[in-house]
Each structure stands twice: as structure tokens, then as C-alpha cells.
Amino acid sequence: MFSSFSALSLCRRGAARLAAAVLVSGVVAAGAVAAAGPAAAGETSQNQGGAIATIGGLKTYGAAVIHGDGGDQQVSAGLFEMSVEGGGTLQTYCVDLHNPTQRDAKYHETPWSGTSLGANKDAGRIRWILQNSYPQVNDLAALAEEAGINGGLTEQDAAAGTQVAIWRYSDAADVDAVDPQAEKLADYLQKTARSVPEPKASLTLAPSAVSGRPGGLLGPVTVHTDAGSVTVTPPADAAMSGVRIVGKDGRAVTAARDGSQLYFDVPDDATDGTAELTVQASTTVPVGRAFTSESRSQTQILAGSSESTVSATASAAWAAQGAVPALSAVKNCAKGGVDITAANEGDEAFTFELMGIEHSIAAGASRTVTIPFQEDQAYDFTITGPAGFEKRFTGVLDCKTQGSAGGTATQTLSEPSPATVGGTSTGTNLAETGGSSATPLIAGVAIGLVVIGGAALLLTGRKQTPTRD
Predict the structure, then answer these.
(1) Which of 181, 287, 350, 422 is the most buried if burial means most Cβ atoms within 10 Å?
(2) 3-state secondary structure of 111
(3) Residue 255's closest CA among 276, 227, 275, 236?
(4) Which is nearest to 453 in space by CA: 320, 356, 310?
């Protein structure tokens, strides 16, 4: 672990891109919720459950050389370590070589569809590499023999070789490990890898939002987890509101397992409102799960997990009459935007506006609308209705890897600093893989927000995804 970090560090970027100021309309819904109750929860990110962790720095690493139009750049390559909220440690590799990494960035477990892996035909090969190399295979003598490497492997060689092989598939990067043993491992892993399926989430709830009338069971919300069991926490104001979390039989539930169905039991006389349940467990997160940060910090993929705390939440809304919407959101990298799903369990249509287009969800119906955003664009929008109904969604669309555009790379280590091949070092960054000083200001500005109702948004230009021959 490293003793000092820069305030903002960059995984290798090329020449600076100009920040563009554009006017973007906020998303405001004119709803038809008669006598809607209290605001339907505040800010909602697209975290679908699982582990939440804070990145530290590179733990085990070697050196690699990236070959590009601007010359050869030497960078660090290896395993990161992240600390899990509630307890636990994760080991990860980078799958977004040229993107920025921010100090102490908070990450959450994310499906591949919400990252660059979703559109990467080689994502399954990356997972195979993770399953068949260090640290999942910690018998380095056996790994060296399998790869045909004479002389064995150190942990640093194994980490560097594994990272280099991953970059060749995640970023289509022209990259080599500096150490010959690590390079042989990278070549072996790249040539041997085959496609395997995306791993399931460690813990998630589906759907994440339900709605209905008071006096009945709202749901079901189904638990999906690889943990043996999960604890179920009722709404914070359950004692006052009378809302209970129950099974289909109406009995109160405090624990559940994979496949369990949970319901919100709302009293007949409950005033219109909302509630939220939380489930939590301790488990090892499946190898190959992606981790992303809303601060645009470099995407990671899981290589190893201790027993770690994972959690997920679901919300319910109810009203005695009129439309009763349930709103949820998920990033859809295939469509370049955010999918907003609106379900209406009321007796009137729920009408709302997205990007100047009016949408209407009939009573008893559900519909998904995709809101398009530019790559790297931070967004912050709220869907509202009469009588205080509102739900806010925030995040950053990060669906592509950043191709090299040349320029000068900075070094990545505080001590010791590796030599730059064909260039000069211009600064010191967070211990990570790759780096560039060309755009720290722009990278920071890119975390601007879309202001509700229309305002200036500062963002960087669209990234270009490298192609493979």
C-alpha cells in the first residue's frame, strides 16, 4: 500500500479533450397521482445491490509497457485492493485502462450491462482469465508449469501478467509485461482463454420498486443471492406506520434466502406514502463481478473476495386512489442511456415527461423508457408529480473504454517511480495502472450535473472504443 496520493489521479489518458458546455433539459414528470403522499424517497443511484467498497491502491504489481501512437509508456500493472462497507476486502483488476481513477472513490457492484463489458464480446474470456490465474490460482509453481514458464513466477509477475492479458481483451490494448515471466503468462492466458458466462450478483432484489393500494400486500420482491441467508430489515418508521415485511402467507419475515418473495403489508388506514426494506448478508462476491464508481473512477473487475457485507434495498409506494407509480432505473450501455421503468398499480393513468416527450402509463401497466446520455455525462434528474411525489436519479454514464490519443504519461507510483519508455514523467498519481497529467482539470469538470429544468452541463468529449483486428 502507498503512503501518499494525489487528489485526483488519472489512469493513462491521451491528449486533453476540450470540455463542452451544453444545455440539457432536466426530466420533470407531470404526474397524475391523486392525493399522493410524502415524497417517494430522494436521490436514487443505479446501484442494484451487492457490495459497496472504497478503492485503496495497487497491492501486488509489476510493470507493463503500452505501445501507442505517442510512443511507449511504462505503467504499473497488477491487483488493486478495496475495503468493503460493513466489512470485507476485495481484490480487483482494471478493465478500463485509459480512464481516470480518483482517490478513495466509492464503488458498487454492477452488472456487465452497466459497463463497457456489456458490449465487449470478449468479456467472458476476461472472466476465464480471472478464474484461472492469480489470485484464484495461488499455487504459483503450478500456474507457471501450466503456462509453460521455466523458473517459476513471483506474485508480482503473476499479477502483472494477469492484468496485461485482461487489458488485451478489455481495452484491445497493445501492451506487454516488462518482466519476461509475466509476459509469458500474459501470452498463455490470452491464447488459452475461452468465454464463460457473467456471474450472478452477490445480492439483489427484483423489482426494486413496487406500488399498490393500502390494505393489501405490495410485491412480491424476490431475493437473488449466493449467500446462504439474508437478514431483512423493515422500514425505519415501521412502528409508527404499521407497515410490515411479510411472506406470501402474511407472516412477518426477518430472514430470507435465494428465491424468497417479500411483500410490504400496508394497513388499511395507512395514509398515502412510501416505505423501504433492506436485506443484508455476508458472503464472498463472485469472481468476475464488475465494480463502477459514480465519480467516473476507473472500472474494476473482481479477482478475489473475502467474506464481505452485501446489501440491497427495495421501495414501495401506495395511495388510496388515482395513479400509484413505482419507479426504478438502470444503466443500459447497449442503448447508451438510462432505462427508467414506470409501473402503475393505480386506477388512473400515470403521465410524465422525459426529455420533452410525454409518456402515459395506463392503470395496471408497466413501461420502460430509455433516456439517452452522452458518454462520460453526469446526470441528475427528478421525476415529480402532484402532492409531493418525486424520485431523483443521479449517476454518470460510463459505457466505453478510453482509447489512447497520445500525449505524455505521468508515473503512477509514489515510491519507487518506474522509468518512462520514450517519454518523461510529469507528476505523481494515485498508485494505479497507467496515468496522464494532460486532463486533470477536465476530468474534474466532467463530474458536472444536469440541473433540473435545464442548465449548463460541463462534460468531456465522447470516447472512442479501440477495435480489434
Answers:
(1) 350
(2) coil
(3) 227
(4) 356
Counts of helices then strands in the chain (DSSP H, E): 6, 28
Distance, in Å, from the CA atom of 410 to the CA atom of 417, rounded to the nearest integer, reads 10
Length of the chain: 469
Contact status, residue 147 vs residue 184, Cβ threshold 8 Å: yes
3-state DSSP of 130-186:
HHCCCCCCCCHHHHHHHCCCCCCCCHHHHHHHHHHHHHHHHCCCCEEECCHHHHHHH
* Other CB atoms within 10 A of residue 417 CB: 12
Instruction: Give the max Cα distance, the chain.
Output: 75
Nearest Cα to Cα of residue 292 among 396, 390, 374, 192: 396
Q: What's the rounded Cα separation, in Å, for the pair 13 and 408?
A: 9
Rounded (5°) CA angle 10-11-17: 65
Residue 413's pLDDT is what? 30
Looking at residue 295, the DSSP 8-state letter turns out to be T
Report the candidate in 457, 460, 433 with the shortest Cα–Cα distance to residue 175.
Answer: 433
**Which residues are CB-contacts of 13 (< 8 A; sequence separation ≥ 6)?**
98, 99, 100, 402, 405, 407, 436, 438, 439, 443
Element (H, E) at 393: strand 390-396
Q: Is the separation of the CB atoms in 169 and 126 below 8 Å? A: yes
Distances (CA, A) of 217 to 27, 62, 199, 259: 31, 56, 32, 18
Determine the average pLDDT of the residues in 128-150: 97
- CB proximity list for 467: less than 8 A, separation 6 or greater: 172
Q: CA-to-CA distance for 328 and 343, rounded, in angstroms?
A: 9
Identify the H or E element spanning 123: helix 123-131
∠ Cα 202 225 286 (to 5°)? 30
Query: And the C-alpha cell for 208?
Result: 426494486
In contact, 155 and 133? CB cutoff 8 Å: no
> 164-204 pLDDT, tens per residue?
999 999 999 999 999 999 999 999 999 999 999 999 999 99
Residue 115: is its pLDDT beyond 50? yes
**pLDDT at 181 (0 to 100):** 98
The CB-side HSE value for 443 (13 A sphere, CA atoms) comes to 28
Overall average pLDDT of the 431-455 stretch: 33
Neighbours of 200 (CB within 10 A): 15
What nine digits make up the cell of 225?
Answer: 443471492
Contacts of 441 (CB under 8 A, 6+ apart): none
Inter-residue contact 263 to 218 (CB < 8 Å): yes
What single-letter DSSP state applies at residue 443?
Answer: H
| Cα separation, 327 vs 316, whole angstroms | 9
What grid cell was written down for 32?
A: 397524475
| Residue position matching grid coordinates 500500500 | 1
